[in-house]
Amino acid sequence: MDLALSADDLAWKARAKSFAQAELFPHELALEMDGALPQTTKDRLREAVVAHGLHGINHAREVGGQGCTQLQQTLINEELGKATNALWAVVWHPAVPLKYGTAAQIRDFLTPSCLGQRRACVAVTEPDAGSDTGMIRTSAARRGERYLISGEKWFVTSADAADYIIVHAIVDGDAAKPTLFLVDSNAKGVRVKREPKFTHTYVFGHHELVFDGVEVGEDRVLGAVGQGLELTKDWFVEARLQIAANCLGAAVRAFELANDWASRRVQFGAPIRKHQAIEFMLADMAVEIMAAKSLVYRVACQIDRGIDRKVAHARASVVKLHASEMAGRVLDKAVQIFGGRGYMRENPVERLSRDVRVDRIWEGTSEIQRLIIGGQLAKRGPDLFTEW
Ligand SMILES: Cc1cc2nc3c(=O)[nH]c(=O)nc-3n(C[C@H](O)[C@H](O)[C@H](O)COP(=O)(O)OP(=O)(O)OC[C@H]3O[C@@H](n4cnc5c(N)ncnc54)[C@H](O)[C@@H]3O)c2cc1C
What we know:
Blueprint lengths: L6 H18 L3 H7 L4 H13 L18 H11 L22 H13 L4 E4 L15 E5 L2 E12 L6 E8 L6 E7 L5 E5 L11 E12 L3 E2 L5 H37 L1 E2 L2 E2 L4 H29 L4 H30 L9 H8 L10 H15 L2 H4 L2
Parallel strand pairs: 1-4, 2-4
Antiparallel strand pairs: 2-3, 3-7, 4-5, 5-8, 6-7, 9-10
Helix pairs in contact: 1-4, 4-6, 4-7, 6-7, 6-8, 7-8, 8-9, 8-10
The structure holds flavin-adenine dinucleotide (FAD).
Flavin-adenine dinucleotide binds next to strand 1, strand 3 and helix 10.
């Protein structure tokens, strides 16, 4: 068994690390203190993503992406995840289902999105439909060769940075026809209802959007009518691995900072790491990170080797559940080791402790991951999780 990273893998990791340090870290404090970054800074960051060759890492070279393996994406997302305020979000990952688009959709949406000329946001969640997507009521009423989309979507991340929206709607009010539509952000009938504030200070917004009879043509259906849920399955695998990798990065940065502080901070005549309570916390953090990292990299490698799609789906849930809960535990310890300083917003550890909380909620809550894992355990047996 060869557990070494290839020269190529290491080069991607180094590239992401230098991007995070040179382009993301310098903006962390201003974003936290001002609550937002100036548009000129966001524009410059978009150019920097392209200059560093980090655009479209999750898509093939033929469509404008970088053709990175899942492991390489994991290494990149881990480095980006070290940045606070979820600044990793300035690096776009065009939605996976776009690759199932028509040739025209790939030309007009996917390729420009990989290149940073266009950006999508994704609108699935509704006031009455969160974990239970079967409750989605946004409807696409067919009128000849056109559709009229009406409904309300919540938590639409990066809606303020996007020029088009991937909208999950049910055709003709039929829950058996969940369908993805490509809708221009400035289309008639699209309206921002609210821009709520959240626990983290995120680089973009999470808007509530209203769709009021928004008219689109048949050419804006992504995949086929009724394929909406099916198309999101591979996407969930990638998104859950991305979250897990971001969590690793957050935990590693907090661990390094806490470890350094524990050596420098002297109380009761000794560096605090000499007090066993602190030493044990550091030891637990080391173990947590090492275990989570082994799991995340392993599943990324297995996906690259082409494991069965359903197995990948189940294991992505394991990875997301474990890494996000690990990050919560590690960040909590890091705050504790810093004492009062760990509660100051100027401390990256404090910001990361808020940033990672949502990782147990979005892209399927921890409870939903357990439901998926439990369901697969009942269907396929323990080997799925225990074999090596
Ligand atoms: C910052 C942020 C950004 C987001 N970005 C996007 C986005 O870009 N696009 C988008 O479409 N959505 C987005 N979301 C929505 C996110 O995916 C949902 O919040 C998430 O799926 C949970 O849905 P909910 O909030 O409605 O909670 P609910 O589904 O109402 O769940 C509430 C609680 O009940 C639990 N629960 C629900 N069902 C079960 C069950 N069967 N068994 C056990 N427990 C259960 C949940 O785990 C949770 O603890 C975002 C959310 C946040 C907070």
